[in-house]
């Protein structure tokens, strides 16, 4: 039977509670820690700790178990302007300029293209239009039309993303130490530490006594035993029968490292427990640590000044992992953009290339475009050729190129086919298109197979294309009223 370590109530059917808050990627859970009432009472402490760590959480965006806690957005400064950094690494100016001059709404957005930040801005645009539509009895279709109209008419200025400045202040709320104490007390309950040795520290948490907490806790300046090859949350607990002390270390993101003296009159069994969670790989990663401190050493740790250089070291190391991850994302996005645009360029070029010419042209265009990309200087040139080969062998193969060429022709021929068939109504036109699509045959079996595999998407594409085109009266006249024109 377990009891709530805070109020002593018997625990039954409690929901499993995260020992390290899930909001920043904690996964260790137990039912035997706190009753739900006490947990609710302490939720404010959790929230403050999460908010103090939000910069680190935003950078690493750890995997959480529920989507209830979103990855926090942080403010950054670039060229004197304030931006929001969204968890996918994109930026948006957090004060968008919106003006209404009585007739027209003027918007100005700044964000990273094709990103979560852009989605947020478009969502905002949609919300504004929705409010306007509600007042003026317009429907959803009207909203969509206005959005595409606005986007068509918009002027887009792109600029190289400058350098963003961040500032990490540890323990901003003043409650980070209490928040960490809650984590370590949860770990003690989980490891079934005799609670008579924890009474005084439990009292500190219960009263949320910040100044008493500072007396038993301090920044931990020793880096020698914490794991360094990834980003981790680490807990360490020691019941030392020789020095009669019970002490603990909490390390969050490897950056915020706190030492706690839980008892200086410990007479229980020898304890040495550690828990280590790799946030980048999203998996527990056992790591042995052992600290044998005398009470004298501990008292020194508790009054030591916080070593700024150690925090700096830890933060730099954290940033290295972050940069590595962000850089990989950046490279993948760039490769994707470049390969797509090179492929389209080749498909839309008039002449039909031989396989050799196609591969050579693709490789040289891809190489040039990649070399021009911002921040690609650190990649060796040879890797662009390797990448190009991988893309040509697996994604934009010569068959895929031929198929796209063929489909471009097929699209073009559909115009001639419709023009010559004189449909009188839209229904008739779409029937003609359907049978045109269904009767397609290609001499090359590979291309016919691609066609069969992609037919559904292609049909939708063609149908949507004509549906949109017919909204334009000029096209409508061209396709549907040729009889009257011919007779003139
Ligand atoms: Zn309780």
Describe, in short, the structure shown.
The protein is an alpha+beta fold and 488 residues long. Helix content is 50%, strand content 13%. The protein has helices spanning 36-41, 43-52, 54-60, 116-135, 140-153, 176-190, 199-206, 210-216, 295-303, 308-348, 355-372, 381-394, 398-421, 426-438, 445-469, 473-480, 482-487; strands at 17-18, 29-30, 74-78, 81-85, 91-93, 97-100, 105-108, 217-219, 232-240, 245-252, 256-263, 271-278, 283-284.
Keywords:
single chain, 488 residues, alpha+beta, 4 domains, six-stranded antiparallel β-sheet, three-stranded antiparallel β-sheet, 13% strand, elongated, binds zinc ion
Describe the fold and architecture.
There is one protein chain. This protein has 488 residues and is an alpha+beta fold. The protein folds into 4 domains: 74-153, no CATH class; 170-306, no CATH class; 313-396, no CATH class; 401-487. The protein is 50% helix and 13% strand. The chain contains 17 helices and 13 strands. The chain has helices at residues 36-41, 43-52, 54-60, 116-135, 140-153, 176-190, 199-206, 210-216, 295-303, 308-348, 355-372, 381-394, 398-421, 426-438, 445-469, 473-480, 482-487; strands spanning 17-18, 29-30, 74-78, 81-85, 91-93, 97-100, 105-108, 217-219, 232-240, 245-252, 256-263, 271-278, 283-284. The strands form 4 sheets. A 6-stranded antiparallel sheet has the order 8-11-10-9-12-13, sandwiched between helices. Strands 3-4-5 form a 3-stranded antiparallel sheet. Strands 1-2 form a two-stranded antiparallel sheet. Strand 9 and strand 10 form a beta hairpin. Helix 13 crosses helix 15. The longest helix is centred in the last third of the chain and has 41 residues, at 308-348. Bound molecules: zinc ion. The site of zinc ion (ZN) has 8 residues, from helix 1. Zinc ion (ZN) binds next to helix 1.
């Amino acid at each position: 039977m377990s009891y709530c370590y805070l109020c002593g109530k018997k625990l039954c059917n409690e929901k499993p509670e995260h020992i390290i808050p899930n909001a920043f990627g904690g996964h260790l859970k137990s039912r035997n820690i706190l009753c739900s009432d006490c947990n609710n009472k302490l939720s404010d402490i959790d929230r403050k700790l999460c908010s103090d760590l939000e910069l680190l959480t935003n950078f690493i965006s750890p995997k959480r178990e529920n989507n209830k806690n979103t990855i926090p957005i942080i403010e950054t400064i670039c060229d004197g302007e304030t931006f929001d950094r969204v968890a996918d690494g994109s930026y948006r100016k957090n004060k968008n300029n919106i003006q209404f001059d009585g007739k027209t709404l003027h918007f100005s957005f700044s964000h990273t293209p094709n990103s979560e930040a852009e989605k947020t801005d478009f969502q905002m645009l949609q919300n504004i239009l929705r409010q306007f539509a509600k007042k003026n009895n317009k429907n959803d279709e009207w909203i969509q039309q206005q959005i595409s109209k606005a986007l068509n008419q918009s002027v887009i200025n792109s600029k190289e993303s400058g350098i963003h400045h961040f500032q990490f202040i540890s323990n901003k709320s003043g409650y980070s130490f209490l928040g960490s104490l809650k984590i370590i007390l949860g770990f003690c309950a989980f490891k079934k530490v005799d609670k008579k040795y924890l009474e005084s520290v439990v009292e500190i948490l219960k009263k949320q006594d910040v100044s008493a907490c500072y007396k038993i806790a301090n920044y931990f300046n020793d880096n020698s035993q914490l794991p360094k090859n990834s980003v981790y949350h680490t807990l360490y607990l020691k019941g030392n029968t020789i020095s009669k002390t019970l002490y603990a270390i909490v390390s969050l993101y490897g950056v915020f490292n706190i030492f706690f003296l839980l008892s200086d009159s410990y007479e229980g069994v020898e304890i040495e427990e550690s828990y280590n969670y790799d946030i980048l790989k999203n998996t527990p990663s056992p790591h042995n640590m052992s600290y044998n401190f005398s009470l004298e050493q501990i008292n020194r740790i508790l009054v030591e000044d916080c070593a700024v250089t150690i925090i700096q070291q830890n933060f730099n190391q954290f940033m290295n992992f972050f940069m590595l991850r962000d850089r990989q994302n950046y490279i993948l996005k760039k490769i994707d953009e470049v390969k797509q645009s090179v492929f389209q360029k080749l498909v839309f070029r008039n002449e039909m290339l031989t396989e050799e010419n196609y591969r050579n042209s693709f490789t040289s265009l891809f190489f040039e475009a990649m070399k021009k990309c911002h921040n690609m200087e650190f990649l060796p040139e040879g890797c662009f050729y390797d990448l190009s080969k991988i893309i040509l062998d697996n994604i934009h193969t010569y068959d895929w190129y031929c198929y796209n060429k063929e489909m471009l022709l097929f699209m073009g021929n559909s115009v001639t086919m419709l023009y010559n068939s004189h449909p009188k109504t839209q229904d008739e036109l779409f029937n003609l298109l359907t049978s045109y699509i269904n009767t397609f045959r290609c001499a090359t079996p590979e291309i016919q197979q691609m066609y069969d595999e992609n037919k559904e998407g292609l049909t939708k594409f063609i149908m949507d294309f004509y549906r949109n085109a017919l909204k334009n009266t000029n096209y409508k006249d061209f396709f549907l009223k040729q009889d009257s024109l011919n007779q003139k």
